[in-house]
Every structure is written in C-alpha cells, then in structure tokens.
Amino acid sequence: LTFPLLSVTLLLSFGSSMLYGYNLAVVNSPAVHIKAFYNTTWSRRYGQGLGPGPLTLLYSLTVSIFALGGLLGSLLVGTLVARYGRNGALGRSALLVLLAGGLMGFSRQLASPEMVILGRSVTGLHSGICLSVVPLYLGEIAPKNLRGFLGLLPSIFICLGVFLAQVLGLPELLGQDRYWPLFLAVVVIPASLQLLLLHCFPESPRFLLIERNDVCGATKALRRFLGTPDVQDVVEEMKEEQRSLSSVEMVSVRQLLQDHAVRWQTLSVVVVNAGMQLSGIDAIWFYTNTIFQNAGIPESQIPYTTVGTGAIEIVAGLIGCFTIEKLGRRPLIIAGFCAMGVCQAGITACRLLQPALPWMRYVGVACVVGIIAGFCVGPAGVPFLMTAELFTQSHRPAAYVLGGSLNWLCNFTVGFLFPFLQMSAGAFCYLVFCGVCLLVALYVHLVVPETKNKTFVEISRLFA
Fold first, then answer.
1. pTM for the complete prediction?
2. Each residue of 185-197: pLDDT tens digit?
3. Cα Rg for the chain, rounded, in angstroms?
4. Where are the bilayer-spanning segments (predicted)?
C-alpha cells in the first residue's frame, strides 16, 4: 500500500463518495424548515399556502430528484470515461457541485424553491457520475491483493458523509431555520479540495494502455502508484487482456444486454444493484426522523438517536473494509442482506407490538441500527467493487452505466413512494423490503462466485 495509492483513494472518497452520503441524509433534519419555506413562498406568490398533500408531494420531489439527477449522471458515465478518462471525468464533475452549492445556498434570499430542487438534481448528477467512476478508477489502479480494501474505502466515506449530515443537522449547529441553506451548500468544500488536488495523480494505467495504447504513460502511472520501477509483470497482464480484446470494441449497454457470453455477470449486476436500493436503506436515510417519530421516540431525542445510528454506520463500514480481503466478497454481501431482511421484519413486529409494549420502541431503534449496519458491512460498497471485477475492460463501462442506472432508478422510486407507502400500508411496508433482501442474498449464494485475489481474466473464465 503506497502513499500515492492511499492518497488518491482518500481524496476521491472525501471529495466524491462522502458527498453522496451527505446528500442522502442532508434533507432529513431540516425537513420542517424547508417545508415551511415552500409554504411561505407559495403563500406570497399565490395568496394561499399549500395543503398537506401537495406539500408532501413537493417535498418528496425535493428528496427524490437527487436520484433522477443520479440516473442521468450514471447514463453519462460511459461517454465521459471514454472521452476524458477516469481521472478527467472526476475532475470535471466536481464543477457541478460548485454550481449546486450556489443554487441551494442562495435559494432563500431569492425566495426560490426551484433553486433548491434544481440544486438537488445537480448534486445527484455529480453523485451519479462519481458513484460509478470512483470504484472504476480505484479498481483499475489497485493491485489485486488490495482491490477489496481500496474498493471499500469509499463506502466508509459514504457513511462519514451521512454521519456528518446528521451531526451538522443538530439544533445546536446548522439544524436551525436560518442555517438550512448553508447546511445544503456545505458540499462545495470537499468538491473544491478534490478539484485542486486531483491533477496531481496520473490517469488509470489500464485505461492508458488498453484503450489509448499508451504503454509509456501506463508504465509511468504504474510506477507512481505501486512505488516500484519493476512493473513489467503488471504491464504484461494488461497486454494479455488487451490482446484478448483486440478484436472486441467497447460495447454499449444494448450490446452488453445482448451478449450471451456475459449474461450471468450482467444479471448479477442487475440483481445486486437493484436489490441494494430496494432493500429500504434509502427510505431510512431519507426519512430517519419520521421513522423514529412513528416508532414513538420522544421528539427531543430523535436528532441524537439519528446521530447514534450514523456512528454505528461508520463502525460497520470499517468492519467490512478491514475484513473483505480475509473473508471475501460473497460472505459479506450475503450476511449484509440477510441481516437487513431480518431487521426489516423486526421493525414491522415492533410497530405492531409497540402500543401494548412501549419498550418495543427501543427494539425498533435497534432494528434500524441493524439494517444500517448490515448495509454498511456488505451491500454498501461490495456491489460497485463486484461490477469492476466481473467484467473485462471492453464491458466494464457499460456495466457501470447499467448498474448505476438501476441503482438510481430504484433510489428515486423508494425516495418518492415511501411516504405514501407508509401512509397506506403502515408497519407492513417494511415486509416488502424484507423480501427483497432475502431474495438477493439467495441469488448471490447460488450464482455469484468469489472474486478475491483473482485477475479480471480469471474471473471471466470462472463465469464461462
């Protein structure tokens, strides 16, 4: 583990992945203040305020449009990485955060709810690009014995981003009515740091050699990242992959779906990425305070209970990060989905029993913590890492576009529909998420092989 490898991983995790986690949770604590701003602005414009239904709809749009921006960003990934490279695409995407921060930061002064919604969509666009490009870049620069560790570090920073949003959202900090635009605009700080420092690191060696045929540039990049002049073995491995792909062009998403040679890899990406979002984790991140309120937690304790769950996330993410190279990918992702499924069923039971047994509210909190911990141990980062490992260079960008698109589409669906699902189904809405979690765990157990310490070519042969 060299200093350049660790440095670029930490920089990308701080400037990209952490922003994804922050933007997932940032709309949770100021929900009341943002709704009040929408209602006041609407009343000034049209002479009457918004009713409960339209206000819920407008706020659900504010929450979920982040995912629509992410969907668009994920669709652009293939074009951006082919044109600008991995490093170049990440540098240009940081400019989007500066734009979004300005829109959200000045929205109240300009009395414009539209600026909040547009800013949220632009942050989603940035996250949609980075959520695919960061693991793609790290998966290509990391040696195979460190691919799991470096690939999961961004998931730790996703947890840190969620935790930071929860802490800054406390009433003693930025959780007050006058500070919520600043709370939303804090994202410009990590993005600015990434924009300043990213050019200090070279492009992905695999991209340079396999796609640009730049052997000299790839060799220099490898020596920088690996910290040794002797990189001939790695260069030969990449040349072998290049030769195997010499008659194969970079495939599109449509060609990927039609390619029978990689149908099981493609199906695995679809199942795991869709299952990750349909597991209900986004509902918990977006609406943590509402969930705890419905569970019977006293209003004054909810912000601090939420911060506690964020701390558990970080611990669980660290456990996954430091055990993945020992335990492998499959055990973590199967255990994570199983734990989430059991805890989703537990929330339903707690909601039903809580009127008769008031102490069950705390069991409900424990189940929420269990869902978050299960997600952070495996499903948080492993699916993106597996997408990088299951495909060779010609299919990898298209696989990220497919996986990222499903990820964000399901994210939007859960974020937009969960308040209405909760109103109609009550406690039983969590059983839907429970079923999804257990089915995904079963699929991974039956179909997906272990990829630890294997080259990309060896993994392709496993599936074949």
1. 0.76
2. 999 999 999 999 9
3. 22
4. 57-82, 94-111, 117-138, 150-168, 180-201, 332-354, 360-386, 398-418, 424-444
